[in-house]
Amino acid sequence: MRFLGVGLIALALMLVPLSTEAASPQPARGDGPFATHEQILQWINDYRLEPQPEKLPEVLKAMSRLGLLRDPDTTGVYIGFAAGVLGSNPHMAEKLVTRMFPMPPEDQAVIVKAIAYSGLPDWKRLLAKFAERMPARKALIDSYLSDKAPLLHNLPLETGPAPVDTLWGYYFATGSLEPVYRIVEALKWSDDKSDVNRLTIGSVAKWTLANNASRDKELLDFLREQQHMKNHPEKVRKALKEIVEAAETFETTKIRKDALAAIEELKRTGPQPNNPWAKAAYYGSTAIALGCVVASALGATAIGLPCILTGAASSAAVKWLNGP
Fold it and tell me: Closest by alpha carbon to 200, among 163, 140, 160, 240?
């Protein structure tokens, strides 16, 4: 069963209102089906209902024009999504990458990582073939070709919310449950009492799993199975039980409130965070990044668009989740 309605990655966020000026997407140059951020999100939203992999290059170029690929902290979901499209379409992957050029050097990391994370058997050959078209990314390319950089299956989750974004992006494009399994692994930190960084990542994993499962039966069924798997620690099985109950009853607000209370308590009593992304969250930023469609500012409810999870699920949501 696909996601219900347009709620592919809808998150029941009680968003902090933003001004219309601050939340409005930057207009793209020219017209077309992907001239605005909302149009791009709608295409992602509908992708698994009607896959159109041939449009991926056009979408990535539109993202580049809109400035959506510049911040590495908020591009994870796009990287994961692009990787999923490439990986699930091996017969056309090379042609798709060819059509992604020209791409500004500052945005080419998305292409590099999408190829590396694709899971294609010949991803190294593909990346090496396009290396000369991305000289500014030589160091990054070499790190993947020499096996020094982690791939999708072993991204270190403790480094911040971006890996969670990336794993969700791959799932959104493919429906593969392997990345979801890795997100489940982060639940071991959802009640961490000693590290606000890990607590935030675990809370984001728990929150996004519950919200997405409430709109995706296949995902919910998978989580139902996982809650009984003995290979998970007891604390993970407990978190999965709470996630399943929240998703089944559409009562995910409690998960957010409990997570917020735990983070606030640890902020008061625990050690200071040491990661830049965590410091932004710790000090109460309420910025909602990556153009999450804010209903209060853009009338998203009226036009039928959800608050697309993307960076609001993790990279940006941690800032809001930890806000005052």
Answer: 160
